[in-house]
Amino acid sequence: MHRLSYFLILIVMASSASAQMYRVDNALKFLETDSLSAALREINFAINHPRTSNYARTWSNYYQINLKRYHNASLREKQDEIIPMVIEGYSKCKNLDADLAYLPSLDSSFRTFTQYYKDNAKQMLNENQLVEYIYFQEAYIACLDALGKPVGFQYFQLGESNMRLRNYEVALQDFQHAIEHKFREEESYLDILLLLGELERKKERELVYVKALQRFPNSEKLHHLDIHQALYKQLSFKAKSTITKRLEEGESGSDLYMMLGDANDQMGLYDEAIDAYQTAVKIDSTDFYNCLKVGTYLLHHAINNESSQFIDQSKRLLESCQKFDPNDLVMLQSLRRLYVETKNIDAFNEVNERIESLTN
Predict the structure, then answer these.
(1) DSSP-based three-state secondary structure for 272
(2) Residue 112's pLDDT band (boundaries 50, 70, 90)?
(3) CA pair distance 134, 182, nearest whole angstrom
(4) What's the CA gap between 225 and 186, in Å, rounded?
(5) What confidence score (pLDDT) does residue 167 get?
(6) Angle, in degrees to the nearest 10, between helices 254-266 and 270-283
(7) 148 three-class SS
(8) Of the chain's two ends, which shows fewer C-beta atoms within 10 Å, N or C?
(9) Looking at residue 309, what is its pLDDT?
């Protein structure tokens, strides 16, 4: 009797599992006939059942159904509701599909989905449409994260844009994410301190400042926080007079000359800005961020003035950055722009491939 009961239990369990797998397959059949409501109903049963929720096929179907719903949605608000479901379907299938029965086809589809947000984010940033850029960039980051790609650079860019739009609380989170992903930690700490200053959160600012100094005890940027704050507030004359006084008192670090360049740039004194920036990189030619900033500034100056005067120096500085951090996306994008200007097709293709490998 005991053995009979055992077999009956097995039969019931097998029947239950079979019924749930029927829902998984039935969902796909409904998808193929564009019966999306029915497909969603069936697949939602499957993803919430303890048996079928652990099958890659379940999540593959869930992904495909929601991707179709996403493309059929006529309103952005509706698409926004579906985006996390598309990402979840891909991520769960990726984690469960050990035999790679479903992932190759999903991977190609999901990368196309990701590319859409990447391209639109780039276009909106180029057109300085920051609100739209933030919308696309946030979705792009979520997709990159699902693909297992680094997202520190994207969070840093997002923080800069939210900072410009005075979305200070959101920008704080963005820069914190950049730090967590170990992207431009020193600069991210500086931006967080500037934001906390704007928000007048003095105690928190003091705590973050101590933490930042523990992480970067020799940081000139952090030791010159008051001047950076003045520059952020566009108080150019105040910043310049403070810098000049410190130089007269014997300070001569590269960061002072970088800030002097920033102050002159804000005042439209571009030749004086270039002189100050050039002095900064002469003092310390191993500072990655300063070399990158000056190299990019000189490149833009040459392009905007249709002059080749600073192209060679820009090239030396930007190419020298590669030995410090060959995968820095800001640096790679500046190099790509440089090679477009100098019509160096081979170098452009090489850099472009590196950018694509890091962002796709």
Answers:
(1) helix
(2) very high
(3) 21
(4) 12
(5) 96
(6) 170
(7) coil
(8) N
(9) 85
Which tokens is 94 given? 């990726």
Residue 324 φ then ψ, to 5°: -90, -40
What's the rounded Cα separation, in Å, for the pair 93 and 24? Answer: 14
pTM of the model: 0.84
Helices first, then strands: H and E counts in the chain: 19, 0
Q: CA-to-CA distance for 266 and 260, rounded, in angstroms?
A: 10
pLDDT of 27 > 90? The answer is: no
C-alpha closest to that of 31 among 64, 71, 1, 76: 64
In a 3-state reduction of DSSP, which class is residue 96? helix
| Amino acid in the structure at residue 205 | R
User: Other CB atoms closer than 10 Å to residue 49's CB: what's the count?
Assistant: 19
**Residue appearing with tokens 């996403």:** 70
Per residue in 271-314, pLDDT tens?
A: 999 999 999 999 999 999 999 999 999 999 999 888 888 999 99
Measure the CA–CA gap between 276 and 285, rounded to whole angstroms. Answer: 14
- Spatial separation of the C-alpha atoms in residues 196 and 221, rounded to whole Å: 16
Show Cβ contacts of residue 150 under 8 Å, excluding neighbours closer than 6 positions. 144, 181, 183, 358
Percent of the chain with pLDDT over 70: 94
Please provide residue 336's backbone torsions phi and psi, each rounded to the nearest 5 degrees.
Answer: -60, -45
Exposure class string for 15-42: b at 16+ Cβ within 10 A, else e: eeeeebbebbebbbebbeeeeeeebbeb
d(C-alpha 96, C-alpha 199), whole Å: 45
Orientation of helix 2-32 relative to helix 36-47, angle to 10°: 150
For residue 260, give every residue at least 6 positions away whose Cβ sits within 8 Å of its Cβ, in sequence order, or none. 240, 243, 244, 247, 276
Band the pLDDT of 330: cuts 50, 70, 90: confident
Please spell the DSSP secondary structure of 232-284, one letter per residue: HTT-HHHHHHHHHHHHHTT---HHHHHHHHHHHHHTT-HHHHHHHHHHHHHH-
Which two tokens mark 279? 């002095």
